[in-house]
Design brief:
The protein is mainly alpha-helical. It contains twelve helices and no strands. The chain has a domain of 94 residues: Tetratricopeptide repeat domain (Serine Threonine Protein Phosphatase 5, Tetratricopeptide repeat).
Length: 200
């Protein structure tokens, strides 16, 4: 799905921007970058056998498990890392995203709330909070969080799209279509379908 692929891409970008990980420094990172997720898990596991409190390795192994579709093991690693480093933005956003995938929107919101409290939190944290609130039917709050994400990053096509979806659902068609068109101009593909369906 567009949403899941975009969020995973954003999480990887956030990790690189925040510099929390050591991409390219370990065998696991190289294997992960090559798409060899099972082998990456083995490499991170070996690293954790001697450094069990290595938050970067826990996060990275969790991401590898996530790519393999093992969300329970991913969650275990993310939560273990969170206990060691409760302000780690990568872990917080990954937990929020993982609980979104499992339709546990209350837990997704909990970790998104933690994320926005981290000084210098990125626009993605507010977007994730908006997504959880959207799913929980908290319309006004979700609109506010999407708008905050857009204010922080005016090239955030996905945030424009979901804000448009929410506006359309609340009978604000003109404003919704403006958001869909902006999202489309920013190459968020789902927006093109929304324009064709709702804005002709």
């Amino acid at each position: 799905m567009d949403y899941k692929r975009s969020i995973l891409g954003l999480l990887l970008s956030v990790g690189l921007l925040w510099g929390c990980g050591k991409q390219g420094d370990s065998e696991g990172d190289i294997l992960f970058a090559q798409g060899n997720y099972k082998e990456a898990v083995d490499a991170y596991t070996e690293r954790l056998s001697t450094k069990p409190k290595d938050v970067d390795a826990l996060y990275s192994r969790g991401r590898a498990y996530e790519e393999l579709g093992d969300l329970e093991k991913a969650k275990q690693d993310f939560e273990a890392g969170f206990k060691l480093d409760p302000k780690n933005i990568q872990l917080l956003l990954s937990l929020s995203n993982l609980y979104q995938k499992q339709d546990n929107f209350e837990r997704s919101l909990l970790y998104a709330d933690y994320a926005v409290e981290v000084p210098g939190a990125p626009a993605t944290a507010y977007f994730m909070k908006g997504r959880a609130m959207h799913q929980l039917g908290k319309t006004d709050e979700a609109l506010k969080e999407y708008s905050t994400a857009i204010k922080m990053d005016d090239k955030y096509g996905q945030a424009y799209y979901y804000r448009g979806v929410l506006k359309y659902a609340t009978k604000k068609q003109k404003s919704a279509c403006a958001d869909f068109r902006t999202a489309s101009s920013l190459k968020y593909k789902a927006a093109d379908q929304a324009i064709e369906k709702y804005c002709q």
